[in-house]
Amino acid sequence: MIIGKVVGTVICTRKNSSLVGSKFLIVDPMEKMEIDGCDRIVAVDDVGAGIGELVLVATGSAARLGCGDPNSPVDACIVGIVDDPQKIVIVE
Amino acid sequence: MIIGKVVGTVICTRKNSSLVGSKFLIVDPMEKMEIDGCDRIVAVDDVGAGIGELVLVATGSAARLGCGDPNSPVDACIVGIVDDPQKIVIVE
Amino acid sequence: MIIGKVVGTVICTRKNSSLVGSKFLIVDPMEKMEIDGCDRIVAVDDVGAGIGELVLVATGSAARLGCGDPNSPVDACIVGIVDDPQKIVIVE
Amino acid sequence: MIIGKVVGTVICTRKNSSLVGSKFLIVDPMEKMEIDGCDRIVAVDDVGAGIGELVLVATGSAARLGCGDPNSPVDACIVGIVDDPQKIVIVE
Amino acid sequence: MIIGKVVGTVICTRKNSSLVGSKFLIVDPMEKMEIDGCDRIVAVDDVGAGIGELVLVATGSAARLGCGDPNSPVDACIVGIVDDPQKIVIVE
């Protein structure tokens, strides 16, 4: 998983029927956590995240398990909200 | 998922039998959304997208769920069309 | 999927038993279509591609669906041959 | 799999219900083993790893098999602890 | 799949129970075949490869099919040994 910050939203009225009702958030991975060299991804929100929050994002097939519908064409899902960014302990 | 712009099409007469009838569109990911450092991908279209439209693309195993045939050898699928590019709200 | 050009072959006599009979081709992704920043991949051929042809390659779990044996340890498969490279329409 | 060093932890009180009880560790891949050009990932710990230890991390769908719950939205899991970093033999 | 050279080994006494008995080899992808921009990976060996040999490596979910245990948390597996590196024909 990676940690990222919710920076935006995107709306698609025309979409795959199994995505109806999904909330799409735009997430910027934390420094050093860009996935696949990708600086920004669209993730479905499963935990009620809001703009500005730091979140845990699961990608790939794991995302479908996180979004509540295993048959949904989803490849990134917010599965947790980081309690306190200050509490992320990193000892290099 | 990533957001990208449909920039072209490609036609394959000889192809895997489960791909017969699929429409292949070439998509350029939005700035900062290149997947795997890949600046351009071929995606099957599930929602009736056209050249120039901004679309939501699911990749990996999620793509098969998006394209209507879970046994199709597809790794990228257009699953939504962005309503209004101006409405993509990004707060950095 | 990505579009690439078949540039070579590789032979493995000692291999996983479910790969016996598979044809391995070396494919160079088209400009801007490098997958995972990878400039060259080995793909199983499902459609009778030859050296020099432009092909459509599915990667990840999709590749197994493309190669005819869903239990084969294959992560890249040629699933189509591009009709006419000149007909790839790209409108940037 | 890749080899990395456990450098930190992250806590998410609000999270997907199947992640309750999971321990999230932050792992820095060993030199040359960055996955997807990603310099730091969050992995679930399955083997009792601690800060500073060198670990073996499985990613993608393999991670779910490593973390004990195949329905958990997990895409990276620590599946082994390297015995002795000095014993990693590399002959280039 | 990618082609790489076996350059080392790594030992993990404490590991996921389904990995007991697995041999972990460190593989350096061939030039231009780095996966996900990753210059070195740890792969389970299924075909009896040795240090210095050129091997075919399957990644992602395909690796589990290659390593004999579909429930093993493995994301990279050596599935073939290249017959003769001189016979890799590449026509650019």
Automatic annotation (TrEMBL), chains A, B, C, D, E:
Its main location: other. Pfam families: EutN_CcmL. Keywords: Bacterial microcompartment, Carboxysome. PROSITE patterns: BMV. One of its GO terms (cellular component) is carboxysome. It is found in: Carboxysome. SUPFAM superfamilies: EutN/CcmL-like. This is EutN/CcmL family microcompartment protein. The lineage of its organism: Bacteria, Bacillati, Bacillota, Clostridia, Lachnospirales.
